[in-house]
Hints:
47% of the residues lie in helices and 19% in strands.
Amino acid sequence: MRRELDKPFTTWFLPLALLTALSLPVAARAEEQVIAIVVDRNNPRSDIGTEELRSLFLGKRREWTDGTRAVPIDLDSGAPRRAFCATVLRMSEAEYDRFWVDQRVRGAGIGPRQLSSAGLVMRLVARVRGAVGYVPLGRVDGSVKVLTVGGISPGQPGYPLVGAVGSASPDLGQAIAASDAEAWRQVGERSAGAAL
Length: 196
């Protein structure tokens, strides 16, 4: 009997909650996060272009201009990685991962070291000469140097490395279709139960 009482609740409440969440301003659902490019404090560079970053993280370039070996450090998941892949590498995360699997199979390299948090990226970049990584600007401390990208400082208008962070919302059409499908499924269950 309890299950029958729950059905009207899920039929009406869940679509209403979904539409309420979708009606929130975009800023309330997701906020923009600035991604900073960080290097060790002894790196002579102060600026880098997105094409040079792309070359470093795809293994096309293995040294800095002063001859120091470049050591790219990657985050293993999250909004900063998605933004970095889309903006700098012009790939999805899945395409980027497949690229490095293919390179390993061909014996052409193993890819950047992946770490699970911005804090770990910061610690490794601070300790390894030639290291370069990316972290949310809010996580940067004095242990590393932040590079400008194309001459623009993080947080300034025109800075290219900005990603959305927060709850991802489905497209309104998808949300309505999903709630309609659930409602029709429940109607079908009730009809089948009544027929018995």
